[in-house]
Design goal:
Length: about 625
């Protein structure tokens, strides 16, 4: 063979090698990862991989050993439906009016449930099976959504995004037998007598060996429910293992990115529904096969302290799939092609109406501190919520409080809240030492207060619009669009809400003046401030009496409660008794909340109406009326 032929042969071989390499790179570039979400309901990081010595979670621990464990992952709201709205849309509910539990108000047309972007890019999308997105559903987001939905129904070679929801750890898992029967009867519409359920198994975890946080009483019911919940976490872990085993047996583990996370914290006392680490911090583990790793991907088996919240999940999934997240998303991708170069330094959280209990709280957490702003400090943490009170441990906690068996820390739950709270998360993970008001933390408090205010204004938080007023607004527009129409005086509304919730009587004159504003939302917050001041609002009685005649029932209801608490009961009760028969369900719920200040004898005047309301199809006024009826009957 001549030299020229030898050279040509080597050039040909080199060309083939380069072509093969380029082809391999091209194939790798177009390969799409499968993405699997495993979601457990209502659980904080009661996981062995998070250092919980009481937890029995071998499957999640093994996933973490091969994945990335996020130490500081947060839901946006400490309850399922608003947080699930965040997950499915990538935006904050207070920006869109979807913060109140199961309110289902409409959102603008540009909001797509994010699996639609995956589906449009060729993914098979399946959801098994919970939605609960707190807005009008978008069924087109899924190829399949049912309790039988699975990635196995996709076309050969088609990438998938699959969600599996595990309800084993849900709040109802710690309810007693009778409470569970009552719950199933309510959801199914079947007569209570026809509901038969399996009896509870003996406890697997020892109630005497589980740490009860100091803000809870370590009574027998509390110890039992904590041990039972650890049993449920173990059972849930087994279901996680079964899903992962099925994936592995299908030969898909090396092609599938797996997320495991909890949909909100909970469910034991002062966790789910509450703006503490116990209600907001969730477990998050992400396992990424080697072929989809990049130099920026944390190494397998690592724990990262990076802050993450639920607005980040949608952009991260799209980023991992190679899809650029849309500009309206309010979170940022923390993995994948479009990973944000700037990690979060803060997460934002909120609480709105929780079932029949009306409240409004906003919170911000940086790498060390959590700041909480209570806009309704006159309401106790432990507002009675029927579903929460189905747990024996909550009822026992309340009974211990009534019997005077609790210390100051354990009693706080049943008392009004402070205007502001500040916790050092590193040194106080239980959130029991409120640093707000301590001189040495003045600068920290001021900075986080400022950051919270800026966030409220940035997202144009519509949660400050009283819910009874929403029904009229959504007849013609969405709350998101209303906030940007020029009709929502957000700066003045929030300024008034801050004054109203300060509990500082120096604002009495200004709140009295604002109680006559042309803007009903400003009037509402001004009158709420007078209610919150309690006896310190005595000089504003004439203002409250005028507000009692306000054309907006929700403002008059606040004035009525304030007047009742100041001793002017007759006119106040006349208004409240009238409004609980209003056609606007949220007016009814608000008035029923206000009537919790009345005596059983006074409530007997409307007992027949309360009975009628307790049989309503509307869930929340039904529950609020039922609570007042129980109050009447317990007094007999």
């Amino acid at each position: 063979m001549t030299m020229n032929k030898i050279i040509l042969k080597h050039l040909h071989l080199a060309f083939l090698a380069v072509f093969a390499c380029v082809t391999a790179v091209a194939q790798t570039a177009v390969e799409k990862p499968n993405i699997l979400w495993i979601v457990s309901e209502d659980n904080s990081p009661f996981i062995g991989a998070y250092g919980d010595q009481a937890a029995t979670t071998p499957n999640i621990d093994a996933l973490a050993a091969r994945g990335i464990l996020y130490e500081n992952a947060y839901c946006t709201a400490p309850v399922c439906a608003p947080s699930r709205f965040t997950l499915i849309t990538g935006v904050y509910p207070p920006s869109f009016g979807t913060e109140n539990m199961r309110s289902e108000y409409p959102v603008p047309g540009f909001i797509k449930f994010f699996p639609r972007y995956l589906r449009e890019a060729g993914y098979y999308t399946s959801n098994n099976a919970k939605k609960d997105y707190n807005t009008v559903d978008q069924p087109e987001a899924w190829d399949e959504s049912s309790n039988k939905a699975t990635y196995k129904n996709r076309k050969p070679g088609q990438p998938f995004f699959a969600v599996f929801n595990i309800g084993t750890s849900h709040e109802s898992s710690i309810f007693g037998y009778d409470a569970k029967r009552k719950m199933y009867a309510a959801f199914s519409g079947q007569p209570l007598d026809s509901i038969q359920l399996p009896k509870d198994k003996p406890l697997g975890h020892d109630p005497g060996k589980i740490r009860i946080p100091p803000y809870l009483p370590a009574n027998d019911a509390m110890k039992h429910d904590w041990a039972l919940y650890y049993d449920k976490i173990q059972e849930m872990d087994g279901e996680v293992g079964a899903i992962l085993k099925e994936l592995d047996e299908a030969g898909l583990s090396d092609n599938t990115i797996v997320f495991y996370y909890g949909d909100n914290g909970g469910v034991l006392g002062r966790s789910k529904r509450f703006i503490f680490e116990s209600g907001l911090r969730v477990p998050l583990v992400v396992r990424i096969p080697d072929k989809f790793r990049t130099p920026a991907t944390p190494v397998a088996g690592s724990s990262v302290k990076q802050l993450v919240d639920f607005t980040d999940f949608a952009p991260t999934v799209l980023s991992l799939a190679g899809i650029e997240p849309p500009g309206y998303f309010q979170g940022r991708a923390f993995l994948g092609k479009y990973r944000s170069a700037v990690p979060r330094d803060m997460v934002f959280n909120f609480r709105g109406r929780m079932d029949e209990g009306i409240d409004l709280v906003r919170s911000i957490r940086n790498t060390k501190y959590r700041y909480v702003k209570n806009f309704m400090p006159h309401r106790p943490y432990g507002q009675h919520i029927e579903f929460l009170w189905m747990a024996a441990s909550i009822r026992a906690w309340e009974q211990d409080y009534k019997d005077g068996q609790l210390n100051e820390l354990q009693s706080r739950f049943f008392k009004p809240k402070p205007s502001e709270e500040l916790y050092d998360i590193d040194n106080d993970p239980d959130n029991i030492h409120n640093l707000a008001g301590k001189p040495e933390f003045k600068n920290v408090l001021s900075e986080l207060r400022k950051e919270t205010l800026q966030w409220l204004l940035k997202v144009k938080d519509v949660g400050f619009i009283p819910e009874p007023a929403v029904a009229k607004i959504i007849e013609t527009t969405t709350l998101y669009e209303y906030a940007r129409s020029g009709k929502y005086q957000i700066d003045e509304v929030i300024a008034t809400a801050y004054q109203a919730s300060s509990l500082d009587k120096k604002y009495l004159a200004e709140l009295s003046k604002k109680a006559t504003s042309d803007d009903p939302v400003i009037r509402y917050w001004a009158v709420t401030g007078l209610l919150a001041l309690g006896r310190d609002a005595q000089a504003a009685k004439s203002v409250l009496k005028k507000a009692l005649g306000d054309k907006e029932a929700y403002i008059a209801t606040v004035a009525a409660e304030a007047l009742y608490r100041l001793g002017d009961k007759q006119q106040a009760l006349q208004h409240l008794f009238k409004v609980i028969d209003d056609t606007n369900v949220m007016n009814r719920v608000q008035a029923l909340n206000a009537l919790q200040c009345a005596t059983p004898e006074e409530l007997k005047q409307v007992e027949k109406l309360l009975v009628a309301l307790s049989n309503n199809k509307s869930e929340y006024d039904k529950k609020a009326a039922t609570f007042l009826l129980q109050y009447i009957r317990q007094s007999n």
